[in-house]
Design brief:
Residues 107-128 form the HTH cro/C1-type domain. This protein is mostly helical and 134 residues long. The protein folds into 2 domains: 3-38, no CATH class; 51-129, lambda repressor-like DNA-binding domains (434 Repressor (Amino-terminal Domain)), CATH 1.10.260.40. The protein has helices spanning 11-14, 40-65, 71-78, 83-90, 94-99, 103-107, 111-121, 125-129, and strands at residues 20-25, 31-36.
């Protein structure tokens, strides 16, 4: 793509005065860098991904309300994490983290273990223990 044709579309990035560094060719055909605020297909893909994340978080919230999963599952989705990422943050095996999704197991976790999750989610221990679904 030529430098003068670098897309400048995405309103999501331009609102925050953020620009993305991309490679383009200059008038001599040499590769150079240019700043872009994005392009429409990328904006659509990003919007769809964000909508999907919000939907998964709401679904997890309903499961917490029904007693099917623990608040850990909800906060994991809310903070755009997956099982591997969360396990890394709390320094536990994935199978242990997955086990903590069970409400009965979650209820028996020590404050020390819960604090690891609270720190990973940037919330207080009280918020994690007293999760409100309202």
């Amino acid at each position: 793509m030529e430098k003068e044709n670098v897309p400048q579309h995405d309103p999501n990035l331009s609102k925050k005065d953020l620009k993305e560094l991309v490679y383009a060719t200059d008038e001599n055909g040499n590769y150079t860098t240019a700043l872009s605020t994005g392009w429409e297909p990328k904006a659509i893909a990003l919007s769809n991904a964000i909508d999907d994340i919000k939907e998964r978080a709401e679904e997890a919230k309903l499961k917490v309300k029904r007693g099917e999963v623990s608040p850990i599952c909800y906060y994991m989705e809310l903070h755009k994490m997956d099982l591997s990422i969360l396990a890394g943050y709390v320094e536990m095996w994935k199978w242990r983290v997955k086990r903590h999704f069970k409400p009965a197991v979650f209820a028996k976790l020590s404050d020390k273990t819960l604090q690891k999750y609270a720190t990973a989610f940037d919330i207080s221990l009280a918020e994690l223990k007293n999760f409100k679904t309202d």
